[in-house]
Specification:
With 423 residues, this protein is α/β, with parallel strands linked by helices. The protein has two domains: 2-281, UDP-N-acetylmuramoyl-L-alanine:D-glutamate ligase (3-Layer(aba) Sandwich), CATH 3.40.1190.10; 292-422, Mur ligase, C-terminal domain (Protein-Tyrosine Phosphatase, Chain A, Alpha-Beta Complex), CATH 3.90.190. 35% of the residues lie in helices and 17% in strands. It contains 15 helices and 17 strands. The strands form four sheets. The protein has a six-stranded parallel β-sheet with strand order 2-5-1-6-7-8, sandwiched between helices. It has a six-stranded mixed β-sheet with strand order 12-13-17-14-15-16. A three-stranded antiparallel β-sheet has the order 9-10-11, with helices on one face. The protein is globular, with a radius of gyration of 21 Å.
């Protein structure tokens, strides 16, 4: 109750949920003694794959007994997920103490919710000066609260695609502008560029960062992977090749995120990560709602022997990746879809046209900025075998499942959180 009360207060400090400016967080961090400075960071920017890449790095570092802190957003089930210190999620009690102290120091100054909790993360991270901070920069890096750090070990650029266009002027809602926002102000250190959806996007990224003096490591040029049919894959870079077991994450698309994680830690020589640390770590990656199978619980009981997955993809790039993976599965697929109002609903679902057996739209509970499931169904009316159900349980129960059929619940990380809490 105390945690909910303080979060409600913090949300009322600024009239806007997002207000792209660094003035407020810089002012607060000044009051806090600039705790963000002089810490060890691996900074992660991009559109998709940030969370999986961070969790892969986390797993490998843990196997090497290297402590890390993690700051990501949004959370899936509870806000504590955003505050990881010494590889442990912060407790409710400690989070209340932290947020209360930062709130008092802020002294009522206008600041957005994301900015003040980001400042709180930095304030507590200063207690763990020897740890590596895995820092996800959300939305547009150039004006993101996480861009106020003054140095880092490396920056990772994950896959970049169209998303959050409503925060850009109409004449700048392009991939070029998104790449500029995410990459034009990167720190000078090392830059790792992950696999992109096209050579055109990759070329635009490399052009954007060409004047940055950082040493650059580009997927396909400086590191790569290849999949073997016999239950392993090869990773290769300037340090040599490693034969690796398949990770505990489903989907070949995850191999590019894991390869980016490997390239990152191998190019931070002072970490001294061994090949065995990598082999052990990638079998223990913890990813929530990234094509994750629900193996037990209330919702699993509704499908009995059939499989049910949850995936938080919510933009066209994510839909493209998910669609390709579903194509590799020999089964009939049924999608349950819930999305936020500001997403490109038609473009998202078009990636699955003629590839799934049914589509069921649902409301996302507790999310006032979500599109109503009935309205979503009307927008997608040209999709065959589409229906609307009020609840997630009703949607699952309404699907006529045959042997080997699978259900995928997708369209929003917020929906993923509601599903997991319900389950």
């Amino acid at each position: 109750m105390k945690l909910r009360q303080i979060l409600n207060r913090l949300q009322r400090l600024h009239p806007k949920e997002i207000d792209l400016s660094l003035n407020r967080i810089n002012r607060l961090c000044n009051k806090l003694g600039n705790p963000q400075n002089n810490l060890k960071y691996i900074s992660v920017v991009g559109t998709n794959g940030k969370y999986s890449t961070i969790q892969a790095i986390r797993a490998i570092l843990k196997d090497a007994n290297i402590n890390c802190n993690i700051y990501t957003s949004p959370h899936i089930q509870k806000i504590n997920e955003r505050f990881i210190y010494n590889d442990e999620e912060i407790s409710d009690e400690n989070l209340v103490k932290l947020l209360t102290e930062v709130e008092d120091i802020n002294a009522g100054d206008p600041i957005t919710y994301f900015e003040i909790i980001s400042a709180a993360y930095f304030y507590n991270a200063k207690k763990f000066k020897n740890n590596i901070n895995l820092l996800e920069s959300g939305l547009f890096h150039r004006a993101d609260a996480c861009s106020i750090i003054n140095s880092n070990l490396t920056t990772i650029i994950t896959a970049i695609g169209l998303d959050h266009l409503d925060w850009l002027p109409k004449n700048k809602q392009t991939i070029d502008q998104i790449i500029f926002e995410k990459t034009s102000s990167l720190l000078t250190s090392k830059i790792i560029v992950s696999k992109q959806s096209s050579n055109e996007t990759l070329n635009k990224i490399t052009k954007s960062i060409e004047k940055n003096p950082s040493k650059k490591f580009i997927f396909g040029k400086d590191f790569n992977y290849s999949l073997n049919e016999n239950g392993f894959f090869y990773y290769e870079d300037k340090y040599g090749a490693i034969k690796l077991p398949l990770p505990n994450l489903e989907g070949e698309f995850q191999l590019s995120n894991i390869s980016t994680a490997i390239a990152t830690i191998r190019n931070i020589e002072e970490l001294n990560i061994s090949d065995q640390n990598i082999k052990n770590g990638i079998k223990k990656i913890k990813c929530i709602a990234r094509f994750s199978e629900i193996k037990n619980g209330k919702l699993k009981n509704l499908v009995k022997k059939n499989k049910i997955y949850i995936d938080g993809s919510h933009n066209p790039l994510g839909a493209s990746v998910l669609s390709k993976h579903l194509n590799s599965l020999e089964s009939n697929k049924h999608i349950i879809l819930g999305m936020m109002n500001n997403k490109n609903h038609v473009e998202y679902i078009n990636y699955f046209k003629d590839k799934i057996s049914s589509l069921t739209t649902v409301d996302i509970p507790n999310q006032p900025n979500a599109i109503n499931g009935k309205d979503l169904m009307k927008k997608l009316k040209n999709f065959k075998n589409i229906s609307y159900k009020k609840s997630i349980e009703e949607a699952i129960s309404s699907i006529n499942l045959k042997d080997n059929d699978i259900i995928i619940i997708t369209g929003s990380l917020y929906l993923a959180g509601e599903v997991l809490n319900l389950n």
